[in-house]
Structures are given as C-alpha cells and as structure tokens.
Amino acid sequence: MPNVEQSIDVDVPVTTAYNQWTQLESFPQFMGGVDSVTQLSDTLTHWKTSIGGVEREFDAQITEQHPDERVAWRSVDGKTHGGVVTFHRLGESTTRVMVQIDWETESIVEKLGAAVGVDDAQVKADLKRFKEFIESRGAETGAWRGDVS
What we know:
With 149 residues, the chain is an alpha+beta fold. 24% of the residues lie in helices and 42% in strands. It has helices at residues 14-21, 108-115, 118-137, and strands spanning 3-10, 34-39, 44-51, 54-66, 70-75, 81-91, 94-103. Strands 1-7-6-5-4-3-2 form a 7-stranded antiparallel beta sheet, covered by helices on one side. The longest helix is centred in the last third of the chain and has 20 residues, at 118-137.
C-alpha cells in the first residue's frame, strides 16, 4: 500500500491553518484533481475527483479530529485510503502542516505513478497551493471546532 508524507510551513497561526483545513468544501480551490467535496454531516464527506483522466466518487469519514492538532479520515466506500493531517505551532504566526496519506492502488497506471513519486509530487503541490491560499487571505474562510475521538 503506497503512502505519502509531506509537510509545509505556512505563515499563519496554527488556529487559522487548522480552521481552513476543516473547510473541506474549499479543497477544490487548492487541491489538484478534486472537483468537489460535499460535507454530508460533521464527520461524513462526499468527494468527486478527476485524476489522470479517471473520475471517481467516494465517501470519507473523519475518524479523529482535535482542534489545532489533527484531522484523520478513511474512505468508507470506493478505493481504500486514509490519512492524517497534523498542525504544529512553530511560532505565533507560523504553522507546520504535515500530511500522511495511505491508499490502495487499483490500476497499473496508479501503481506506476506511486512507484515514480507522482503522488508525492501532487501532495507537495497541493500543500504549496494551500500555503498560497491561506497566506494570501490572511484568515480562514470558516471553521469547524468540533472534537471527534
């Protein structure tokens, strides 16, 4: 099962970075291949993606969430995947966002892409766009501060 681990430092307070990350419906604005995310409940989301010409829809469940610390999820249908994003306060206005994602490849193209680092590059680019998105705004577009154990 391939996995990706990437991080980026963003020049906003940890609360701002975390709050923005909880606004899942904004993900298409900075995540490549994500067409839409619909928040069905506090912990259930529906995703539509188009990656490498392959369109997919799936639901994901938030399995753990602690304000200003972490958000973890796993798929509940479709391709098996899951991950965690953690937020680390580096200073009053600097936060390290760390992402770890594990998934099950289905096709030869996906297996090859994982082997040559395409997925790592995608997550790295997504994090760079997240940095640009949140830093250019200076504030989050919203927040969900609930706790999921």
